[in-house]
Amino acid sequence: MASGFQPPPYPFDRIDDLRRSAASLPGGSVDLSIGNPSDPVPEVVAAALADPDPARTYPPSIGSGDLRRAVADWADRRLGVSIDPAGIGACIGTKELVAGLPHLLRLRDPELDTILYPAVSYPSYAMGAELAGCRAVAVPLDAQWCLDLSAIDGSDAERALALWVNTPGNPAGGLDDLEAAASWGRDHGVTVLSDECYAEFTWDGSPRSVLRHGFDGVLAVHSLSKRSNLAGLRVGYYAGDTDLVTYLHEVRKHQGFMVPGPAQAAAVAALSDQAHVDVQRHRYRRRLESLVEVMAAIGVEVPMPGGGFYLWVPAPQGDAWGFVGHLAESVGMVASPGEFFGEAGSDHVRLAAVAGDERIGLLRERAGI
Fold first, then answer.
1. Which residues contact 340 (CB under 8 A, 6 or more apart)?
2. Using only C-alpha atoms, what is the Rg of the chain?
3. Where in the chain is the domain with CATH 3.90.1150.10?
4. How far apart are CA 136 and CA 129, in angstroms?
């Protein structure tokens, strides 16, 4: 039997029993376990996908000129950041980039071996480090679920290839001080990787980006999956430090990573239209508020997040697995236990406000609202 790396069970495969339990209720289950968009694809995107021409030839690995200009225009409008289109790169959704960056960074600087990441966060930050043969070191969070940079051990900082930040945060919706993170990275010579995929769903204030505090030593990562209900198209993009972006452009060409041509054309259409994003923002805000009421009816008080479309719910008596089992059996809701996002989140449960209004209405009925 192989003695090398053995992948752990995929977290969301571990709740299949919950799905079966919830599905047994009349009307079936309401699955809020994964942030999987269910709302319509924007009409402007559907129209762009109808054009067969972009499928004819190999698409540029770094992203077409039209795509990179569309990203630059969007960043100027929504983030208040001026980016040269030449300093933007495309990725096949952001998960492949998140999971692959530690490997590419270690190839670039093999003397360093540590990836710092939020102690409660998207599992791919730690898994990407593990797949690269790096040390994955969790950074504690404060009471607002934001990074506590003062808690990073000096010896870990000396060995760090990168620090991940995520604003708005998944799962807890925290809003990190991105200026402080960028300054910490520059002071310690550590690249700051800023996952900003939920920026359009920032509820407390305007969308934030690490790039507003300079490009040196930082990389911002964005996606169309949630913003435009295009998770299946797999379109993401990155920008930041000139040397790092140039390195990623070149090495990813050798790897053959290319966003399909039709997806790039559709992304241009999506980035050029803000109206559908505003509609989606309203949907998610309304659903979050409705789920807060469902939790209150069940007897659990939960605050609205600072951003994102997840509710981070404290489990009664800290028993997250018991609570997700109760939710499945009592109201047919499938939720994720917090340990999927790190041991520090094991006393919470995450709800993704991705089900349609009719399905969330069913939860309300079952909760007696």
1. 11, 12, 14, 123, 350
2. 20
3. 11-41+275-366
4. 6
Lowest mean pLDDT among 13-17, 71-75, 202-206, 246-250: 13-17
The residues with which 141 forms a beta bridge, in sequence order, are 147
- Model confidence over 260-304: pLDDT tens digits? 999 999 999 999 999 999 999 999 999 999 999 999 999 999 999
CATH code of the domain made up of 11-41+275-366:
3.90.1150.10
Q: Supply the pLDDT for residue 1.
A: 56
Q: Can you tell me the mean pLDDT for 124-140?
A: 96
For the structural domain made of 56-271, what CATH number should be given?
3.40.640.10
CA angle 333, 335, 337 (to 5 degrees): 145
Domain with CATH 3.40.640.10 in the chain: 56-271
Residue 132: pLDDT over 60: yes
Residue 2: per-residue pLDDT: 61
Contacts 24+ apart (CB under 8 A), 208-211: 208/79, 208/167, 208/175, 208/178, 209/75, 209/79, 209/81, 209/178, 210/165, 210/178, 210/181, 210/182, 210/240, 211/75, 211/79, 211/81, 211/83, 211/239, 211/240
pLDDT, average across residues 136-164: 97
Q: Are strands 160-166 and 114-118 parallel, antiparallel or unpaired?
A: parallel
The Cα 160–Cα 113 span in angstroms is 6
Q: Kindly tell me if the per-residue pLDDT of 364 is higher than 60.
A: yes
How far is it, in rounded angstroms, from Cα 209 to Cα 222? 10
Surface-to-core class of residue 138, CB atoms within 10 Å of its CB (0-12 exposed, 13-18 middle, 19+ buried): middle
Q: 320: which 2 tokens?
A: 């997250």
Q: Are strands 88-91 and 236-240 parallel, antiparallel or unpaired?
A: antiparallel
**Identity (one letter) of the amino acid at 306?**
G
Q: Cα separation of 244 and 34, whole Å? A: 31
pLDDT band at 66 (very low <50, low <70, confident <90, very high): very high
The alpha helices in the chain, defined as continuous H runs, are 16-23, 43-49, 65-74, 95-108, 124-131, 154-159, 178-188, 242-255, 261-271, 275-298, 320-331, 357-366
